[in-house]
Write a structure and sequence with these properties.
By secondary structure, the chain is of the alpha/beta class. It contains twelve helices and 16 strands. The protein has two domains: 266 residues, Aminopeptidase, CATH 3.40.630; 112 residues, Alpha-Beta Plaits (2-Layer Sandwich), CATH 3.30.70. The structure holds zinc ion (2 copies).
């Protein structure tokens, strides 16, 4: 493996940062201590930065000394944690009740800090690097907020890159694909209105529970009968709220779920069908159904040229055999998509799976694998050296 020597030497130090960050997990837009830790490190290394972008976000900038090119690229790390109670009992366990780093953003922050330290000590590149420490990936859309607060006007960049640890991929490998790598997510809410009554006299009522059950079953035909079998879609109804007791038919039912798709056409067909199925089934029972679709994160779309660059750089570190260039997209979502919608770039997955780190992200027993710190930071540094020659 072609890890840069001075980065390999930083592994112990980086592991300490990562473990410290793991002890102080904070939710989106409340990453105060995390932000302070990042700023302290940047101060220590004499790197200039702007803080309080999207409340707790930071952009640090390092200018190379190998020329006076204005070309700039962006490297992004997410810094927030999840509302999950830590189940691990190791020394660096979360000290924040009910909150923990179960997506490895403590590791992502550390990977970018490692690259920052290296690049500030070795600025032998031509151009500028914007190091984006982004809050609130887990639901708050921090990337979108940073953009709305002027990230791309204040720090113009020709390309932007993101990275996520991947427990499913073995350590020492990277995986990536061109095109959509993660899904667009929409929340689906359906309110079914019937007519309440005595449970012993159902003929005098319009039972919204029966209607809703039929709607839920029929919605599954969108993937199995409406769409092309090769289209990718997830439609899961995950909430069903109705009723108060055993002998009353309720007036209404509230359903909620998630719709995930990898392209606009599939999404449009699915939303149209959700509306048609819900209202027509309800109508056939003299009930009504109103559908509300709430827009979530868009598709995470890796542009072709930047994906090739990212994969080539990864191959330089771990070897061509260890780069999966055509990984299957996943139906999860990612707010880095907002940045990729504005600037060409690519999002890469860094393998972290070994015997102790196979647990999936968002599981209460998950932990970031510190063995990948030198690999990930080397990737960032090599990307800068490759693009800002
Ligand atoms: Zn996550
Ligand atoms: Zn994550």
């Amino acid at each position: 493996m072609a890890i840069l020597n001075s980065i390999a030497k930083m592994k112990t130090e980086m592991t300490q940062w990562r473990k410290y960050l793991h002890t102080i997990p904070e939710l989106g837009f409340k990453e105060f201590k995390t932000s302070e830790f990042i700023c302290n490190k940047l101060d220590e290394w004499g790197i200039s930065y702007e803080k309080n972008i999207a409340k707790t976000g930071i952009v640090a900038q390092i200018t190379g000394n190998k020329g006076n090119s204005d070309n700039a690229i962006g490297l992004r790390a997410d810094i927030d944690a999840l509302p999950i109670q830590e189940k691990n009992s190791f020394e660096h366990k979360s000290t924040n009740e009910g909150v923990s780093h179960k997506c490895g953003h403590d590791g992502h922050t550390t990977l970018l800090l490692g690259a920052a330290k290296y690049l500030s000590e070795n600025p032998d590149f031509n151009g500028k690097v914007n190091l984006i420490f982004q809050p609130a990936e887990e639901g708050g859309g921090g990337a979108d907020v940073m953009i709305k607060e002027g990230l791309l006007e204040k720090y113009p960049m020709s390309k932007v890159f993101g990275m996520h640890n991947w427990p499913e991929t073995p350590i020492g490998k990277f995986s990536i694909c061109s095109g959509p790598i993660m899904a667009a997510v929409n929340t689906v809410q359906i309110k079914v209105k019937g007519k309440g009554g005595h449970a012993a006299m159902p003929h005098q009522a319009i039972d919204p529970i029966i209607v809703s059950s039929q709607i839920i079953s029929a919605l599954q035909t969108i993937s199995s009968r409406t769409l092309d079998p090769l289209d990718n879609i997830v439609l899961s109804i995950t909430q069903f709220h109705a009723g108060t007791t055993h002998n009353v038919i309720p007036d209404e039912v509230f359903l909620e779920g998630t719709l995930r798709t990898l392209n606009e056409k599939t999404k449009k067909i699915a939303i149209d069908r959700i509306n048609e199925i819900s209202s027509n089934i309800a109508k056939s029972f003299s009930a009504t159904a109103s559908v509300y679709i709430e827009k979530g994160y868009p598709y995470t779309h890796n542009s072709e040229n930047e994906t090739k660059i990212a994969a080539d750089v990864a191959a330089k570190i771990v070897g061509e055999d260890n780069v999966i260039r055509n990984m299957k997209p996943v139906m999860g979502s990612e707010d880095f998509s907002f940045m990729l919608n504005k600037v060409p770039g690519s999002y890469i997955c860094i393998g972290q799976g070994d015997s102790k780190h196979k647990i999936a992200v968002h599981n209460a027993e998950y932990d970031f694998n510190d063995e990948i710190l030198p690999i990930g930071s080397s990737y960032w540094v090599e990307l800068v050296k490759h693009l800002l020659k």
